[in-house]
Amino acid sequence: MMGLYEELTKKQRRTIARDINVISSLKGLAFPKTIDDIKEIGFFSPKIKLDKNEIYLSGQGKTALRRICDIIHGSKKYKDFLNYNDVFQSVLAEFGRWLGGGLIPNTEEFITPLDELLSESVKQFRFACRVDGISLKDVASIQIGQREIRRFSSDDLDGASDVGDKIKDVISIEYNESLVITGAENGSQSVALDRFYHNAELSLSILRLYSCALYRQGINKVNLRLINDCAHAYGAASSFGRREFDNSLIFTRYSKSTQDFELDSELVDYLGKELFFVEMSSLIDNPTRTELENAIVKSIYWVGEAQKDKSNPSAFVKLWSSLECFFTSGDADITERNARGIAAILLFGGFSHEQFEDYELLKKKIKGYYKLRSKVVHHAEFSHIDEIQLEEMAFIAAWVVIVMVTLVKRGYSQLTEIELQAQRLDKACKGVSH
Fold it and tell me: Phi/psi at 82 (nearest 5 deg)?
């Protein structure tokens, strides 16, 4: 891989050289003598550590520091593996090393050891997180791209050092009998964990999408969750009340998942052979996605977010976001383009849906649903979307995505190709109707 210094442009090297000189000079540093001086600089202003002392940066020094960090954080080598704070702290540490020795480096002298320091922060991490709302029957695991869902095993902790001496015991108790999603990511620890959470959510969203495609109530009844924050790590949930006329106690208890999405060997086989599960899953980790593939991944995300959302109007809008990834590349005739594209995909995409057999009626229905979406977005309406409408919208969105994956298999790569085919089919249908 190209070194960081080699990647920098001549202009970037000159900028860094000027900023090094600023930070290494008196105009880049601040020496507060009173508490008021520190208040003026800012209590949390960046400081360069020199042995046991710390030196504050002046306004010019902070500006120069940010410019250097911006350049490095935007580099191809590190932009996907380190966050801004990773870069910021490493740059401060490198300045501390040089200023501590009373030296002022040139750009190459500063960047080369900094590159080594940053590289040491990029490691591979393997993570596991509990999931809820899914059950596996007569299958040990399911692979979704580079992630796997399976039952937690104490073997997952073998060989891991336990710095807290009790962490393994806590994990074993908390994860006992749970399903987990596992995967490996590269980067600093925080970046790798964030990417794992992101890709784990996308993986679950693929399952959320299939639940909506296969079960008409999937958008409301299935509740797949990544248990990675306190909002989802609840135990028992309930409400209670009483009937006023006889004071009878009412107690309603909720489980973590309304209804598990059960995956057995027959369903897993069906998803793989008939509904392109493997092909869809592979898109998550594809670093060179085409325009169509990228739109599919964005659509998967929004279908998943819609299923997680228990507000009907909010979920409805998110489902429309998943569809507009494909059919709204321009500003003109958005309603018509959506209706034309969605109807063409559903009727002529290779899958049969009994309720959607009339092209013009389906276009009319989709336009009606787009009006409902507009009431939420443009008029702040929130009580006009019922469960049946939401369920049908989720069904439509899920099948559109599945068909788009089949189009990738047929060689389509650009959204304009889809639009042209939709226009052709629309004209053909209008010709038949007349």
Answer: -130, 145
Residue at token pair 């040139």: 106
Asked if 403 and 346 count as a contact pair (C-beta separation under 8 A), the reply is yes
- Contact status, residue 360 vs residue 427, Cβ threshold 8 Å: no
H/E stretch holding 289:
none
The pLDDT value given to residue 183: 92
Q: Is the pLDDT of residue 258 over 70?
A: no
User: Of 369, 361, 359, whose CA–CA distance to 389 is shortest?
Assistant: 369
- Which residue, chain included where needed, has tokens 């320091």? 117
Q: In what order do the strands lie in the sheet with 141-144?
A: 141-144, 147-151, 179-187, 123-132, 225-226
What is the rounded distance in angstroms from the CA atom of residue 204 to the CA atom of residue 197?
Answer: 10
The per-residue pLDDT for range 275-311, each reduced to its tens digit, is 999 999 999 999 999 999 999 999 999 999 999 998 9
Element (H, E) at 126: strand 123-132
Torsion, CA 391, CA 396, CA 400, CA 406, rounded to 10: 80
Is 248 buried (19+), middle (13-18) or exposed (0-12) by CB count in 10 A? exposed
Tell me, what's the pLDDT at 331? 62
* Paired strand residues for 259: 222
Please, what sign has the CA dihedral across residues 56, 61, 67, 72? Answer: negative
> How many angstroms separate the CA atoms of 205 and 16, rounded?
43
Residue type, 413: S
- 119 CB-near residues (< 8 Å, 6+ apart): none
User: Any idea which residue has 């959470």 for tokens?
Assistant: 197
Q: How many other C-beta atoms lie within 10 A of the C-beta of residue 346?
A: 22
